[in-house]
């Protein structure tokens, strides 16, 4: 729960850093779920003759390192979302009990409730970000889930249908996020207006449209979170460390309001008025995403952003 000073800080500065948002059991279950997931991926690559035999000493990070260095697409199978384009019925993604438990954790929902009220929908704009040391990443890689993220506002990555939606982002650290390994940074006190974005490579705000205010880095320990308003400009620092940095970004909006990505599934995470509508079964969540994947695979592409790919906002 937040105290009055924290709520006042959120209302003034547009962000908060909160330690110990989820408990260690929940965090560890996510780490274990991803280890099992990656064991399966690695075994498949091994069966295809693409990687050396796994050894008992190899853990999640070792296997990820092999896949990363070999240039495999290790990212999409770990994401809790679908990519922007080129979705097929085979596009991999991850929905399991531990990530569901995390996304519906009372520690998160209690904070969200204090900021947007007790009718809470889990917004489908959500990602895992597991970022390797940036100096080792291929120069052609531009995905903000893998390299540092350009300045943007989260309302800038929804469609305009969600412009009036009450929403909050919960950026949850699974490993310690530090200045060295690429924690989030924010521009405080800028939660009133949408800035122009450009959708080239990443969707971002060019320097001349950015407020001049000082950027504030937001290091936070594993299990803690950076909570921010959807108009707060934010970016991530580059991962200049030798290890990976792992976070999830989750968003919540007031139930009944547009999510800004309506072709992907949302669900009621908590409701005071109708408690029975809150989703409790991760399999249903998974099924909703499988349905969305099939829909996307069999229908014309739906754009996820409203911004131009060239022109003044890209200069
Ligand atoms: O973790 C990052 O690099 C950026 C995350 C982000 O933009 C968000 O959580 O909205
Ligand atoms: Fe963001």
Written account of the structure:
The chain is α+β, with helices and mostly antiparallel strands. The protein has a single domain (4-314), classed as q2cbj1_9rhob like domain (Jelly Rolls, Sandwich). It has 6 helices and 9 strands, in the order αβααααββββββββα. It has helices spanning 4-13, 24-47, 60-70, 97-103, 106-116, 282-298; strands at residues 15-18, 120-131, 167-173, 184-186, 216-218, 225-228, 234-236, 245-254, 267-270. The strands form 2 sheets. Strands 1-6-3-8-2-9 form a 6-stranded antiparallel sheet. Helix 2 crosses helix 3 (60-70) and helix 2 (24-47) runs antiparallel to helix 4 (97-103). The chain is globular. The protein starts with a helix and ends in a 17-residue tail after the last helix. The mean pLDDT is 95. Bound molecules: 2-oxoglutaric acid and fe (ii) ion (FE2). Residues 129, 144, 149, 154, 169, 171, 184, 234, 236, 247, 249 line the site of 2-oxoglutaric acid.
């Amino acid at each position: 729960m937040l105290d009055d000073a924290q709520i006042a800080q959120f209302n003034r500065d547009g962000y908060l850093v909160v330690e110990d948002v989820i408990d260690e059991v929940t965090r560890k279950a996510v780490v274990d779920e991803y280890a099992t997931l990656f064991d399966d991926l690695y075994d498949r690559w091994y069966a295809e003759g693409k990687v050396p035999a796994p050894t008992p000493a190899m853990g999640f990070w070792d296997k990820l390192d092999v896949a990363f260095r070999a240039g495999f697409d290790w990212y999409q199978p770990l994401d809790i979302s679908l990519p922007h384009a080129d979705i097929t019925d085979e596009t991999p993604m991850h929905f399991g009990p531990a990530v569901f438990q995390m996304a519906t954790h009372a520690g998160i929902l209690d904070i969200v409730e204090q900021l947007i009220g007790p009718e809470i929908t889990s917004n489908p704009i959500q990602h895992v970000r597991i970022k390797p040391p940036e100096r080792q990443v291929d120069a052609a890689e531009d995905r903000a889930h893998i390299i540092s993220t350009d300045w943007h506002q989260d309302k800038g990555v929804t469609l305009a249908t969600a412009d009036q939606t009450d929403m909050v982002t919960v950026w949850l650290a699974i490993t310690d996020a530090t200045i060295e390994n690429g924690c989030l940074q924010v521009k405080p006190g800028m939660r009133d207006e949408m800035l122009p974005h450009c959708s080239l490579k990443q969707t971002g705000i060019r320097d001349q449209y950015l407020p001049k205010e000082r950027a504030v880095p937001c290091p936070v320990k594993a299990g803690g979170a950076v909570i921010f308003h959807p108009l707060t400009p934010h970016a991530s620092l580059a991962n200049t460390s030798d290890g990976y940095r792992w976070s999830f970004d989750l968003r919540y909006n007031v139930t009944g309001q547009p999510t800004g990505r309506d072709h992907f599934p949302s669900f009621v995470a908590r409701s005071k008025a109708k408690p029975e509508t809150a989703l409790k079964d991760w399999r249903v969540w998974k099924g909703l995403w499988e349905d969305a994947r099939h829909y996307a695979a069999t229908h014309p592409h739906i754009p996820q952003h409203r911004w131009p790919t060239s022109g003044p906002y890209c200069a």
